[in-house]
Amino acid sequence: MSEDVAAATTVPATTVPATAAETSPDNPWPLQLLSQKLRMHIDRAPSAWVEGQVIELNRRGNNAYLTLRDIDAEISLPASVWTKVLDRQESPLERGSRVVALLKAEFWLKTGRLSMSVKDIRPVGLGDLLARIERLRHALAAEGLFSDARKKRLPLLPHRIGLITGRDSDAKKDVLRNAALRWPAVEFEIREVAVQGNTAVAQLLGALRELDAHPEVDVIVIARGGGALEDLLPFSNEELIRAVADAVTPVVSAIGHEADRPILDDVADLRASTPTDAAKRIVPDVVEELARVRQARDQLRRGVTRLVDRETDRLASLRSRPVLAAPEVMVTGRHDDVERLKIRAHSALTMAVARAADQLDHLKAQVRALSPQQTLDRGYAVVQLTDGGSAPGTHRDVVRHPSQAPSGTSLSIRVAGGRFAAQSTGGQEPTDG
């Protein structure tokens, strides 16, 4: 440190640019000034707790050198640590240990070397991992990602199944074999990925998004056999969980591990206990379906048979009725009715004509009795005045009173047998009696 400080104090007091943006080929910074500013900037950066996996660890006297690798990505970072920090651990760190470390960036002014110094380091035990998973589980549940209302129903018979599984894994074989046994025509779109390790999450995400965008994939199965808790951590990764929740295609979780179940089981649209169970639940059993088809056909056949028998009985009942057994009876009966009605109509008409004839005869008798000729036949006569200026034989008014025919008046008298002329000799009023 003393050498770095001494070097820092040797910068000549010249008119150098105040900022890096002001430098130019004609007015550059001294290299030591850049190093000083980098060191000042890095020294202001705070320490940070990071999580990773120890992939290298070498002790050299009082110092130890280790390399940390990201849990979910191919990113590593070398760091140095005092051995006394490592000696504080209850159990010695080993390669493959999952740890959280407090890192501080340090810049060596003289050599221009940036290094990471571990100020503290702690192993992450199973209890810590479980606690972290549970905190994430509760947080995602509070967002509603595990709600049954958002889970999608699986198709009854998927056209094509997307399968995400390990390379040449037993889980893959179990799903393919059991699905083919249940439905031989089933088709798969397989994506083989790493199912543990730091590349697992990235590969799982890529395969999930690719299958979700595939137009022919109706359901996606993420399958893996059992394993230790550390091996199953990718299936509790928050990014993967949110990707499954956002998927349009139904997702089935088939992680063969009943204890310490990963969060993927909660967010998936269907959880299968094992890959074999997933195969049984995503495709129907062709034997069972054929049995159901036969049963349905038998029920349909029995129903049709009952319907035909019932309608046959109805037809037989209808045919046994007299109107169908002897249909001419209906015509004969109507013919008899018509004949009977004709006779009644003829009789009624004959009687009506007879009554009308009698009435006509009666009216004729009345008319004759009231006619002027009948009156004349009984000895009466009709006396009429003769119009003297008219031609012979023409008559005028009927004489109804003696005053109409004074003496000398020419008269025409009509009797039953004819007419004759007469002359009035005068008349008198009728007397009582």
Task: Please render the helix and strand layout as text.
Layout: H1 2-8, H2 31-44, E1 48-60, E2 63-69, E3 76-82, H3 83-87, E4 98-108, E5 113-123, H4 126-142, E6 161-165, H5 170-182, E7 188-192, H6 200-212, E8 219-224, H7 238-246, E9 251-255, H8 264-267, E10 270-271, H9 275-282, H10 286-320, H11 322-325, H12 328-370, H13 372-377, E11 382-386, E12 395-398, E13 410-415, E14 418-423
Parallel strand pairs: 3-5, 6-7, 6-8, 8-9, 9-10
Antiparallel strand pairs: 1-2, 1-4, 2-3, 4-5, 11-12, 11-13, 13-14
Question: Any key phrases for this structure?
Answer:
433 residues; OB fold (Dihydrolipoamide Acetyltransferase, E2P); elongated; 13 helices; disordered N terminus; five-stranded mixed barrel; 3 domains; single chain; alpha/beta; five-stranded parallel beta sheet; Rossmann fold
Main beta sheet, described?
5 strands, mixed, barrel
Provide the CATH architecture of the largest domain. 3-Layer(aba) Sandwich
Give me the oligomer status: single chain
The helical percent reads 40-55%
